[in-house]
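In practice, a research group might receive sequence data for several interacting partners and want a quick structural hypothesis before committing to experiments. The following worked case mirrors that situation: the sequences arrive first, and a predicted assembly follows.
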Amino acid sequence: MLKPKNDLLQGTLALLVLKTLARGPMHGYGITLHIQQVSEDILRVEEGSLYPALHRMEQDGWVSAEWGMSENNRRARYYRLTAAGRKQLAAEELDWQRLTQAVAHVLKFA
Amino acid sequence: MSWITRLRGMLRRERLDHDLDEELRSHIEMRAADNLAAGMSPEAARYEAQKRFGNTALLKEDTRNTDIVGWVDVAARDFRYALRMLQRSPGFTAVAVLTLALGIGANTAIFSAINSVLLRPLPYHDPGSLVMVWETNSQHPKPHNTVSPPNFLDWQTRNTAFSDMAYIADVRNNLTGNGDPEEVVVQAVSANFFSVLGVNPLLGTGFTPENGQAGHDNVVILSYGLWKDRFAGDSAIVGKSILLNGKPRAVVGVAPQNFNWFIKDGSLTGAKPRLWSPFVFKQSFHDHKQIGRFLTVAARLKPGVTHAQAQAEMTAIAAQLEHEYPDFDGHWGVNVVPLRQQISGELRPVLLILFGAVAFVLLIACANVSSLLLARAASREREMAIRTAIGASRWRIARQLLMESLLLAVIGGGIGVALTVLGTNALLAASPHNLLDLPSVSIDLRLLTFAAAATLLAGLLFGFLPSYVSAHSQISQTLREGGRGSSTGERRRFARSAFVVAQLSLALVLLAGSGLLIRSFVRLVGVHPGFDTAHLLTFKVSLPQSKYATDKLCMAFFQQLLARIGAVPGVRSVTMENYPPLTGLGAATGVHLLNQPQVALMDLPVANVRVVGPEYFSTMSIPLRVGRLFSEQEMAEEKHVALINQAFADKYLNGVNPLGQKAVIYMKSLAESGNQPSEIIGVVGDVRQMGLDVAAEPTVYWPMPELVYSGMTILVRTSSDPLSVVSAIHNELQQLDREQPMASIATMDQLLADSLSRARFTMLLLGIFAAVALLLAAVGIYGLIAYSVTQRTQELGIRIALGAQRRDVLRLVLRHGTRLTLLGLALGIAAALAITRLLASLLFGISATDPLTFAGVAALLAFVALLACFIPARRATRVDPIVALRYE
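A structural hypothesis for the assembly, expressed as C-alpha cells:
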C-alpha cells in the first residue's frame, strides 16, 4: 500500500520507528519509550498511531515481527528491520534532511 | 510480493486477531509495570496505561484495516449484519426486494429482446458489410421496392462498390412424395446467394457457379427445419432427389440450423423459405427492359467502401438508367440499406421505447426503496448516533448502510433475473410470431452483465442518499432530541418528498405514453376494413405449372373447386382472390384512362390490381356504390371489364362519371398495344388491403378470366366456426387432385389480429409498465404520508385536544399530499409533452400530445395519489388525543 507523500506525521512516525529499530529488534512499548527518552520527552508516540503504523510497515515488508521474551520476562512482539526497511530508512533519512535543511534555509532567510 | 503475505495473512486471520490482542495487552502491562515502579497506585498505574490507548476497539480496527484480511473481515461482518437487519424487518425486506425484482426483471426481459434483435450478430459472415439494395420511386412513398431483373443486371455490371451481389425471389411450390403434399415457400436465388452471405451448408457442398447456368439449375438446398420435419434428418439426403411441383430436384445441401433469410419488404409470400433453388434469368431479361420488379437484392460492400459511398454510386447508376430507359426507369432511384437496419428497422423504435419505459419503472422502484430506507434510517437514527459516539467513522456507517442496500439489490436482482427467464417466455408467447422471431431467450454473458450492472447501479442509486444522510447526521442533536425533529430528519423528509414528486412525474410520463397507445389502438380497431371479417376462412391453393400449364386448366380447376366447396354443409358462399386481403401483399401497376391524355408509362396513375372469382363482393360484403358487378358471362370468359374502388374514383376521376370509361391496365405488357382496354362497369367500396392503419389505395378489380393466376386465395364464408369446415374442404380438394396441398389456412379474424399484433403488443407492454409505475408511485406517496402521520401523532393529538375538527385534520394531512401530487403532475406533464413525441411513429389517428389523453391520465394519477393519501389521512382523524399525548 502506497502512503501519500505529504503525510508528514505518518511519514515522520515511520522514520522514527525505523531509526529506533535500526539499533536492534524492539517491541512496541520499547519503541515508544526509546523515542520519548531520546527526544527528551519532546516526542511522544501515541499508541493509537503506533500499532497501525507498525502493522502497515510489516505489510510493506519493512519490518518483520516475532514473539520473544522481554527483559522482565514478558511475552512481547519484537519488530526487526528488514533489508527493505533499511533501504526505506536511508531514503527517509535523506528526505528528512532535505526537508529540515530547506526549512532552515527559509527560517534563516526571513 | 506483499500479496503473498496478505494471502497468508488471510489464512491465519484468527491467529492475527489473537496476536494483536496479546500484543496490545503486553504493551499495557509493561506500561502499567513501569507506572507502578514510578510510584503510582496499582489501579492508577493500570488506568493510565489503558487510557493512553484510548479506544482499543477503534485502534484494533485501524490496525486491522491496514490489512486486506481486515477489509475482507469488515466487509464480511457488514454483510452478516446487513443480513440480520433485513431478517429483523421481513415486511420491509419483502416490499423492497419485490419492488426491485420487478424493476430489474422487467429491464432484463426487455434487454434480452434488444440483445437478440439489435445486438446479437446476424448469422452471416461479416454481417456489417452486407446491405440490401432496393429500387425506390419518387412518385410513391415505398422506400423498399423490389428490383427488376434487367436493372439488377445493369447494377451488377456498372457498380464498383460491391464485391458481389445476390438476388432472391420467393415462390410457392408444391412438395410431393415422402408423405402428404405440402405447399412450401421456395426462395429462387442467384447461385452465389450463400457465398455472398458467407454461409456454408451444414451438409453437402451447396450451389456451384455452374448451377447458375440454364440446364444445371435442377438442384435444391433444404432448410434445417424441412430436413428435420420431412426427411427425418436423413444424414444421407445429399444426392437424393425430391419432387418440387412434380419435377425431380437433386439435394445438394442442408442449410445450418440458425440460417434463414426473410426480409419482409421483399417477401412475395409473407412466409419463411423452406428451401432454396437456383434462379436462372431468361434470355429476355438480358435483352430488354420489360419484366416487372420482384427481386430482393443483397450485396456485400467491398472492404473499405462505406454505406454512403455505395449509396452515392448506386444513385448515379440509377440516374444513368433513368436517362437511358425513361419508360422503364423513369422516377426510379436506388436505396441502399444496411442489413441490420433492414432486419431490425421496424422493431427498433418499439424496443427502444419499451426499454425507456422499463428504465422509468426501475427508477420509480429505486425511489420507492430509497424512500423506505430513509424512513427506516430515521428509526435507526439513535443506533447510528450511538455507533458514531463509540467511534464509528462516517465512512464506516455509510459503508454498512450501503452494504444493506447492495444486499437488497442483489437479492432483488437475483429474483428479477429468475423472473426474466419466466417473463421472457411469457413475453415471447404474448408477442406476435412475426414480430419477435426468437426461438427462445438464451441467458448469455451480455444479458448477465446487463443484469449485474442494473442491479449494482440500482443498489448504489437507492442506497446512496439514505446512507449519506445517515452518515452526516449530528450525533449530539440526535441523542438529545431522541431521534425526532432533528435537522437530519428535515433533510430526510425533503428527500422523501422529492422522491415522491419524481415518482409521480415519471409515472405520469408512462401513463401518458400508454394512454396514447391505448387510444390509438382503440381507433385502429374501430376502423372498418371495408369487408366483413367474421366467419371467413382463407387458404391458398397454388397449382404447379407442370400439371396445369394453361390458363384454361387453372380456370377449370378453380371453378370445380369453388363448386365443390360451395356444396359443403356449413358453407354459405365461397369465392377467391389473387392475394389475401389485409396482409399488404398485392400487385400494382400503371393505369391509363383513355379520356385522359397519354403520358409516359412511369407518370401514369398507379392502382392495385386484384383478380377475383365469382360472388366475390357478396361473399366479402363489399358494397356496390355505382353501376353493376361482374356477370356470370364475365366470370366465364374474357370480356374486358373491370370494377374500381371508391379511392380510385376519388383520386383519379375528378368527378367524371366512371361508368363506361375505358382504361388500359398495364398488367400483361409494358406496351399499350399489349393490353386490351377494360371498360369500367361499376364502383365498389374501399377495402384496406395494406392493413387497418393504411388508407385504402386506388384499386382495380378484374374477374378471373382477365388475368389467370395459378395460385389463388380461397375465401369461404361459413355459418359457424370457419375452422370447422377445413377437413371437409380438404377432402374435396384431395378428390380433385390428390397431390394438391391446402396452404396458409387461417380465419380472417386471425389475419386481422395478426395485422394488429405489433400495435397490441406495444400497447400491452407499455400498459403493464404504466400500471406498475402507477402502483409504485401510489405506494410511494402512501408510505410518505402514512409515515408523517405516525410522526405527527402527538401534534395531531394536541390539535384535536384543542378543538380541531376531523375536517381540519383531514385537510392538514391532505394538503401535504396534494401539494406533492400537483407538483408531480406539473413536472410529469411537462416531461411527457417532450417525451411522447418519440411515440409519434407508433400512433394512429391521434396526436402525440393529445390533450384528452393527457387530461385523462393526469386525472387518473391525481385520483390514485389522493386516494393513497386519504387512507392515512383518515387514520389521522381517528387519533385519540389522550393516547397521543401519553405517547412518547
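Before designing any experiment, note the following. The mean pLDDT of chain B is 85. The two ends of chain B are 59 Å apart (CA to CA).
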